[in-house]
Every structure is written in C-alpha cells, then in structure tokens.
Amino acid sequence: MKKKMSLAQRVNVLRASVMGANDGILSVAGIVVGVAGATTNSFSILISGLAGMLAGTISMAMGEYVSVNTQKDSQKMAIATQKVALADDYEAQADMVAQKYIEQGISEPLARQATQEMMAEDALSTTVRERYGFNPNQFISPYAAGIASMIAFPTGSILPLVSITFFPPHIKVFATVIAVAIALTITGYVAAVLGNANRRQGMLRNVVAGLLTMIVTYFIGHLFA
C-alpha cells in the first residue's frame, strides 16, 4: 500500500510548484519583453518565448530533482552518523536532546522526562530531529518535486506568452509588464506564506525583481533593434 505524503511533504511539493510557476513567469517575461525591445514581429517573440518555456521547464525539473536528491543524500548521511552516535554513547545523545529542550525554556525535570519518553519511543528520530532539524521519516520525493516544477514552470510561462502575443502592438509590452507584476504579487505572497516570511516584503521583493528583469532585458533588446 502506497504511503500517503505528510503535511510537511505536501508543503514542500507545493513550494516547488509555486517557485516553478514564479520562475516561469519571470524567465519567460524577461525573454519576450527583451525580444519585443528588439523587434515588433509577433512570431519571433512567440517562438523565443516558447523556446524559453521549453528550456526552462527541463532545467527547472532537472534542477529540482538533483537538488532534492542532494538534500536527501545529506539527510541519509546524517541519519547514519546519528545511528553510530547512539550506539557509541546513548546517554550523551539523550543529554543533548534534554539540553535542547532546556534552552527552549522547559524546566530541567520536565525536559528530561520528555526526552526519556521520546527516546524510548524512537531514539533515532528524536535525536536526528533535534540535532539536524529534520524528521527522518519525512523525506521529500525528488520525483514529486521535479514533476511539480515541470508542470508549474510552463503554467507560469503562459501568462507572459499570452499577454505579449494577443495584446495590441502599441500596448503589448506595457500590458505584459502589468500582467506579470500582478502574477508575481500573487506568487510572492504564496511563497511568503509557505516560508512563514513577511508577506509584504515577499510580494514587494518579487515584483521589484520582475520589473528590473523586464526593464533590463527590454533595453538590451532595444540596443539591437
């Protein structure tokens, strides 16, 4: 029977999806606006955007897969190290966990009682969580993260492609910039929520980065017009 993903695993897949969509919006917007600065030929702009979408989709999917696999390998190494530490000196590892709880403001008797109970239930998970900061029973799937990015990147790319292609020629660049700014506001907000960060700063940072990208690529394209 296939094991269901935990909430933490689902959040990480959602994070990969949001960041993939964000990168799709930003990357393809930079490409099409840059090409629009050099030419008004709609076909050339569309083809460059489609090429960027395809390249970005493959790059994001493979990058996410490799990144998560690397993280997973590091976590496996940490678990192996912790198994040896528990076998060599169980009491020292239990003391480490208790000290972590005491540093968080829990009284020493309560901290040691909680440590004893959790170590008796699952010493490895308890010590790995407190020493390395992750749950060894909740590995992120590199396949799920890669597939999420592979779907999200082209989905995000659709907005700037549609905007730059179907808006009237005299407003297509401006309309694309506005549409992209709105989309980046949304993805910036969602990313901040998932990362438990400041929402306003997350949105502002995302939009400013997108606007700067489009301004720079537009004027570089304009130089070759």
TrEMBL record:
InterPro entries: Ccc1_fam. The keyword Membrane applies. It is a multi-pass membrane protein. The chain crosses the membrane at residues 21-39, 45-67, 143-167, 173-194, 206-224. The keyword DNA damage does not apply. It is found in: Endomembrane system. Keywords: Membrane, Transmembrane, Transmembrane helix. CDD domains: Nodulin-21_like_1. GO terms for cellular component: endomembrane system. It comes from the Bacteria. This is VIT family protein. It comes from Lactiplantibacillus pentosus (Lactobacillus pentosus).
